[in-house]
Amino acid sequence: MVRTQIQLPDPLYREIKRIAKQQDWSIAEVIRRGAENVVRHYPSEKLVPGEGFRFPAPIRSRLKVSDPAKLKALLRADQECSP
């Protein structure tokens, strides 16, 4: 993992702290998740002028959980198992 330093506007930092507290995550985890979300939504290949944007293929998932509390528990359990 790479260590880096960033500067955040005060209002953004306060919101990140709020989310970290609500989710019981570290501030670094909130920022990592936010960065992962941005990376997922931007295509990795450079667009050719005039071709326009094409959506990537849908993500196939076998997750069949509709209860948000159960999903949160499953995600936490998965994080605890990850190295």
Structure commentary:
The protein has 83 residues and is an all-alpha fold. The protein has a domain of 36 residues. Helices cover 52% and strands 0% of the residues. α1 crosses α2. The longest helix has 15 residues. The radius of gyration is 17 Å and the shape is flat. The model has no long low-confidence stretch (mean pLDDT 81).
Keywords, separated by commas or semicolons:
mainly alpha, single chain, 83 residues, 3 helices
SSE topology sketch:
Elements lengths: L9 H14 L3 H15 L26 H14 L2
Helix pairs in contact: 1-2
Q: How big a fraction of the residues is strand?
A: under 5%
- The whole-number mean of residue pLDDT values reads 81
**SS-based class:** mainly alpha
**Uncertain stretches:** none
